[in-house]
Amino acid sequence: MNHPALSPDMTTTPTSTAASSNSPALSISDVSKHFADVLAVDGVSLDVADAELLALVGPSGCGKSTLLRMIAGLIPIESGRIELGGIVADDGRRSLPPEQRHVGLVFQEHALFPHLSVEKNIGFGVRTTNAERAGRVAEMLELVGLGSHGNRYPHELSGGERQRVALARALAPDPALLLLDEPFASLDPNLRAQVRSEVVDVLRSTGTAAVFVTHDQAEALAVGDRIAVMRDGRTLQVDGPDAIFHRPADRFVAAFMGEADFMTVAALRTSIAGTPEATDHLRGVDDDEIVMLRPDDIGFAVDPTGHARVSQAEFRGSTWCYTLELADGSTVRSMRSHVDACPLGTTVTPTLVAHHHPVVIPTR
Amino acid sequence: MTTTLQPDSPSRSDEAAHAERSRFAGGGRGGWTSVAVGAAVVVAVPVLMLASSILTPSGEVWSQQWRTRLPGELRDTAILLVGVAVGTTFLGAGLAWLVSAYRFPGSRQFGWMLILPLAMPSYILGFLTLSSVGRTGPVQDWWRDRFGIDAWFPDVESIGGAIVTFTLVLYPYVYLLARAALRDQASGAYQAARTLGATRSEASRRIVLPLVRPAIAAGVAVVMMETLTDFATVQYFGVDTVSVGVFRIWRGTYDRDAASQIATLVLAFALLAIGLERVARGRARFSQTGAAGAGIEPLRLRGGRAVLATGTCTAMVLAAFAGPVVRLAVWAVQEQRSDRGTPLIDQYPEYLANSLQLVAFTVVVCIGVAIVLANAQRFGRPRITQWATRTTAMGYAVPGPVVAIGVILAVVGLDDLLGRIGLELPGAVRTGSLLILVYAYVVRFLAPGLTAVEAGMGQVSEEVTASARTLGARPLETARRIHLPLSRSSLLAATVLVGVDALKELPIVLLLRPFGFDTLPVWVYNLASESRFQQAALPALSIIAVALLPVALLARRLDRTDP
Asked: Which of B96, B193, B278, B306 could link B203 by a cystine bridge, Cβ 3.0 to 4.6 Å?
């Protein structure tokens, strides 16, 4: 790959000579930013390895889009340091302008240039001879499966096609890092999963490292090699999808990344019939520790002598989600197959499903 | 611009330092920001210099003025402003209510025809009013024939005549803002009030009127600024305002100190008008509520009321636009048929060329600065560039005489500075030159151009700009390849708005023109001042024809949004 901004004369600075081929595609250390009095990003540190897909997830206003714009160079940082492939892009004093960072950017609304054809859009960032550019554009059109659409204009495309043009345009200059800001939020839900897997396939095939902002936890879990969960400008946990889901760092991450109920270990021991192995798993844990239970961790048996009662039932198509009211008035949700209908008010005994372990949530 | 980098290591080679510098300078945030601030300073300096002249009052000027004309000027200015404000409020808001709340024969067409007087400069309608209903006009001739030679007729050549003329020309500002408010803001609240049990008249009185009040106040503020700017029309009617005072002192004696002292009074009246708007608006800050368009259900008028409504609107359009245009057309034809018509027409190309030259310079500078400012908001530091842009747009709210004298002060100050290092500005900067004229026009007309260009940039999302930047385009390239092509139609609109304003302008050119530099408006004014109305008809008609261009565009947009 040839990145003009990273040409030899740039790499003579001390920071750059330390950079070698194994420096991460992106390295953020202790980055902060205020907007007026609001601390939008608060001491965030992150690394993204070559060819890695990092999902940045959090509720709206958590600072994830601000962080993305700072990586792109659209907003200067206040303190900390951003390095791209080992080159300092921003250290709080000086900020490399976006056009010299060689970072691709894909927006939710795609932001195609409406006055340029698909070919011209894709070729915009390719700074070579006309012949080379035409070759590159054809290659990108092929890559995203729009070979015959080169002469069309953005308004003549469907939402999914626009998304693919935006991706092709961002990838055409061969960036070392691609940033995607809620790229599928504007697509309708039926199309979303399909376009998403296409985009991931393209990123995998080109080996491009990417940071991907979303507020949808399912999307983050499905796409990210690793996931960074953000809240109030801070990263709460950066981990693989499995760890994020099964070993959340705190109660917020647990609740945000999937449905979860919480109870004390004491309550669990008295009101839910545990399997022996789960009980083993909790041996030695204090009674007042908090555990997280996902709806699929909990089953129940209809039992006229049970201490719980079905208080709500929600049919979700492939499953039923029941809310069980326990003897102490607290509730826990339980997921069952769509064929297991159970009337409201049924008296039941909740049980832990085999091989599902209740997770002790660390308190801060 | 980051040219002073703290070196990370003292051992860095010079080439590396140079490479580093050029890399970081490429962003140009600082460059765009300083250009925007520079534009704001250039626009603000004339007004600030004029305002600061109040700090060094000349006792001699004030006592001399106070003994002679000043008391009368102050009185006339106050009466004129109050009269025009009251007149335009009733006429503008009343007509807006009439066409919004009622249906009558022609109501839809009157919706847009009522803004046609916007194309009628006051200095043209002024002499037409005098020549038609003045002492020697056909109306009074007929009146004396009918009721005898001593029959009473109101004195047209008076402050009353001036108030009527300004009211007819300026009411569309109030009308337009009131109509927009009726459509966009009041309609949802009106419907809510009706469903809560209010009758039509109760909902109108208790809900609609308070909601529309800020819009009326804003319209009246514009009207007062326009009235204050004028010192040509009022002279037809023998009215002496403070603006006339500035004109008389400057063109009579070229006494900068005296002219600027009196001009601060004009500025004071302008500030008073803005203050009154704030008071009238009160604490109301209304934003759009409810869907636009679906609004007050119009009531169909029948019989005598319908005739009255149609008659009122017809009379307005006839008095303020159609009648004057027909009269001018008849005069123009008579003039060409008469013997003396031919020599006068020979001067037409020269005056037209002067006007076009002035318009061309003004448009090029205004649109150029507007493009730079609109782009600086994308590429520079957001808060500073926005502040700079708002300052730059302020010139439109400053009356012409203030701008004119302020520009003289600024350019003379610059000339003195340059003189110290042995340079000289071209032209007679101390009394007026094309350079000064264009400077004043730019200060005054930058705002409409800027508004239009900014509206065009608003169509280009921040994301589109960001996409171009991350694809490797520098700010200038982004502006050239993305922003300009996408805002082409807005640039055209800006050109039309600024060009037409500049073509119509009379007060500033009367104050600042170089000796012998006559534009079409100056020609019209000179002929009208000598009561050579018939000869003034042709240039007057051509000014109206050009001024109709933006008005027609606006009228078409109004007609389309009408239900």
From this structure: B193
| Partners of residue A95 in chain B, C-beta under 8 Å | 24, 27
Q: How far apart are CA B513 and CA B493, in angstroms?
A: 27
Q: Mind listing the pLDDT tens digit for each residue in B54-94?
A: 777 777 777 777 888 888 889 999 999 999 999 999 999 99
Count CB pairs under 8 A between chains A and B.
105
Interface pTM, i.e. ipTM: 0.80
Q: Kindly list the strands in the beta sheet with A359-360, ordered across the sheet, starting from the edge strand earlier in the chain.
A: A261-264, A290-293, A359-360
B510 touches B370 (CB < 8 A): no
State the Cα–Cα distance between residues A71 and B407, nearest whole angstrom.
46
Question: Phi/psi class of residue A272: alpha, beta or left (left: φ > 0; alpha: ψ in -120 to 50)?
Answer: beta
**CB within 8 A of B477, min separation 6: which ones?**
B468
User: Could you give the C-alpha distances from B23 to A16, A100, A169, B5, B28, in angstroms and in order?
Assistant: 14, 8, 24, 12, 10
Question: How would you label A231-263 residue by residue, b for 16+ Cβ within 10 Å and e otherwise?
Answer: bbbebbbbbebeebbbbbbbbbbbbbbbebbeb
pTM of the model: 0.80
Asked if B24 has any chain A CB less than 8 Å from its own CB, the reply is yes
Distance (Å) from the alpha carbon of B473 to chain A's nearest alpha carbon: 6
Give the model's pLDDT for residue B272. Answer: 87
B22 min Cα distance to partner chain A (Å): 10
pLDDT digits (tens, 9 = 90+) for B310-330: 999 999 999 999 999 999 999
- For B:478-537, CB contacts with A below 8 A are 481-482, 485-486
Note whether A109 contacts B472, CB cutoff 8 Å: no
